[in-house]
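User: For my dataset I need records formatted as: sequence, then C-alpha cells, nothing else. Please produce one.
Assistant:
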Amino acid sequence: MGKDNILKTSWKHLIDEFNQWFQNYLPLLWLAVSNELIPSISKYINSNNPNYSFNNFAQDMGLIEADLERWIRTINRKGQAVLYGSPGTGKTYLAEKLAQHLIASGDGFSELVQFHPSYSYEDFIQGIRPQSQNGILAYPLVPGRFLEFCKKAESREDTCVLIIDEINRANLAQVFGELMYLLEYRDKEIPLAGSKNFRIPKNVRIIGTMNTADRSIANIDHALRRRFAFIELRPNYDVLRRYHLKTGFAVEGLINILQQLNQAIADKNYEIGISFFLTDNLREDIEDIWRMEIEPYLEEYFFN
C-alpha cells in the first residue's frame, strides 16, 4: 500500500486489517518463540491482568498488610502451610485469596482438592487402578492428584498452588506417604514404589485448611506438624462490619452477642466465626441462620 493510499484510507479500516492479521498469525508467532504453547499463552493472558496487590488482598480480608506479608514469606520459605481455626473464620476463602495473590501476573495456576476420611495414598500420590483395555482387564499404575499437579507445575515458571481443603479429615500419615520426606527436603528426590524418582518442583506451594472443631492441632501427627507452618485465624468482627456497610444492616448488636457467646464457649477451637453472617439479606436470613446453623452446631459439639 503506497503513501497516497495510506493517507486516503481511514484509520478504522487500517486498525481492522491489523487486528485481523494479528488474530490469524498470533498462533504462529507463539509457536516461533515458545516450545510450550499453553504455558506461554497463560503467561500472556495473566500479564495483561492487574496484579492482586497486598492492598487489595488486605482490604478483602480485613487484615493488616504486615500480617499478610509475614504469611506469604512463611509459605514461600516453608513451601506449605495450614490455615486453622474454628468454623466460620474464612479459612477456605483466605486460602483461595492467598493462592490468587501468589500466582498473580505469572503463568502459575492453583487447584483445590478436598480430603475426607476415605481419601487414600492411591488418590493423592499414585495407585493401581483396574482398567479395561481392548476387552482385557489391566492394572496400570496411575498417578494421583498430587503427582498430576506436580507434572503440570513442572512446565510452568511461576508459583503453582495446591489448596487442600479440610486437610485434617484424612489419615495424613497414610495419604502423604513418601511425601513426608519431600516436604521437608524440597531439593531431594526419592523413588516411588513401582515408578521413577520423584521430587516436588520448586515452584509448588501447598496451603491446607483445618477446622479445629473437628480436630485440634494437638492431635495432628508430630512429623507432619514440623513440615507445615500453621497460621491461626480467629473471628474477625471488622470484616463483618465492613461487609455490612454496603447492606445498611446494623451489625453491632450481633457482634456484641457473638463476642458474649464466644466468651461463654471459652475455647478458641469452637468459637463461632463471622462468615455465617456474610449475606446481603441478613435482615431476612438472620433468624434462620441462628436457628438452623448456629444452634445445631452448638448442640452437636457441646452435647455432653
